[in-house]
Write a structure and sequence with these properties.
There is one protein chain. The chain is of the alpha/beta class. The protein has a domain of about 70 residues: Ribosomal Protein L15, Chain: K, domain 2, CATH 3.100.10.10. The chain contains four helices and six strands. The protein has a three-stranded parallel beta sheet with strand order 1-3-5. A three-stranded parallel beta sheet has the order 2-4-6. The model has no long low-confidence stretch (mean pLDDT about 85).
Length: about 150
Amino acid sequence: MTLAPHTLKSTARTKPAKRVGRGNSSQKGTTAGRGTKGQKSRAGGRGGLKLKGFRKSLLKIPKVRGFKSHRPRVQIITVKQLEHHAKVGHLVTPKWLASIGLVQNPLLSVKIVGNTPVTKVITMKGCLASKGAALIIEKAGGTITY
């Protein structure tokens, strides 16, 4: 016996909706569970966020002083990651780092950090570097220009 999709029935138990506004003996008479007054108690009244003039953008801003943006100002890469992906003599730029997937946005600043020793000669252009990372890269014979 094959079952067609239109003949299948849900196994979830369904309960009939409570009929409101059918007299006070039904426990949902008079105001029908909507409260006494106000726009939401009347027929055609709009509820939810639109009632008080809220917008979703207002809800995203926290109600505290000193709001801090979640958007990263600097994208960080370690020297270890750089040595693993970069080839000797290859020019490392934010655009190239984005193309191999080490950074998300090539337009944001990229900073190289870390203190692991480097064996490759790495040439970087358009990237920031911490003092320790710059020292390690220059000690291996690489250059950093921003």
